[in-house]
Amino acid sequence: MPGRRGSFIGTLARPHGVSGELRVNINPFFAESIEPGIPLFIEIDGQRVPFFVGESEQIADDICIVKFIFIDTLEEAKKVCGLRVFTSLAQDSDTVYEGDLHELTGFTVKDEKAGVLGVVLGVAGNSINPLLEIQKDKEICLAPVGGPFIVRVDRNNRILITRLPDGIPGLTD
Fold first, then answer.
1. DSSP-derived secondary structure for 19-86
2. Distance from C-alpha of 26 to C-alpha of 45, rounded to nearest angstrom
3. Taking every pair of C-alpha atoms in the chain, what is the biggest distance, in angstroms?
4. Which helix (H) or strand (E) holds 87?
5. What one-character DSSP code corresponds to residue 126?
6. Dihedral of the CA atoms 9, 66, 55, 30 (nearest 10)?
7. Which of 7, 28, 42, 151 has the smallest count of CB within 10 Å of its CB?
8. Model-level pTM?
9. Residue 148 has what DSSP assignment?
10. Which class for 119: exposed (0-12), middle (13-18), buried (19 or more C-beta within 10 A)?
11. Are strands 63-68 and 47-60 parallel, antiparallel or unpaired?
12. What are the backbone angles phi and psi of residue 61, rounded to the nearest 5°?
């Protein structure tokens, strides 16, 4: 069980049909993470409980229909509606940002050692290894998101505090 690790990918919005299928409002960046046979972790009473995906269908960029193994009725599906869903992609990491990565666009990135690095332009990479696109001066650099690299997010001041390793081209080289 990954405890507090893993990446937040969306919310179980409502039942879809009468056989336990659920509509998941998902961060489009993680849509490819939902595949049959892999576990997703539903946060129930503060604990992340693994549920294996039986079937999934992406019907929009930010909406998937998921059939979990062992959720077979409309009543069982209703019990988990409104709960948050996490993936275990980063379960070996110490700290993982659990929000929508796209919400960091426009945030100033400040590293604990290197100081102000630049401004987040967007997200690149894939769901397994997401990267932040950071504009530093006139250069666009890529920084990892997973692991212990995001220390804190100050939403009020739109500042992202990082602890990046040495040697990232253009940022900590």
1. SSEEEEEE-GGGGGG--TT-EEEEEETTEEEEEEEEEEEEEETTEEEEEETT--SHHHHHHHTT-EEE
2. 21
3. 55
4. strand 84-87
5. -
6. -20
7. 151
8. 0.53
9. G
10. middle
11. antiparallel
12. -55, -35
Q: 44: which 2 tokens?
A: 């129930």
Q: Do the beta carbons of residue 63 and residue 24 sit within 8 Å?
A: yes
Q: Which residues, 6+ apart, have CB-to-CB distance to 18 below 8 Å? A: 73, 74
Paired tokens of 127: 């769901």
pLDDT of 55 strictly over 80: yes
Could you tell me the pLDDT band of residue 22, with boundaries at 50, 70 and 90? very high
pLDDT in tens, 116-144: 999 999 888 666 567 889 998 888 888 87
Amino acid (1-letter code) at residue 22: L
- The full set of domains in the chain, from first to last, is 7-87 (2.40.30.60), 101-162 (2.30.30.240)
Q: What letter would DSSP give residue 93?
A: -
| Contact (CB, 8 A) for 15 and 74 | yes
DSSP state of 137: T
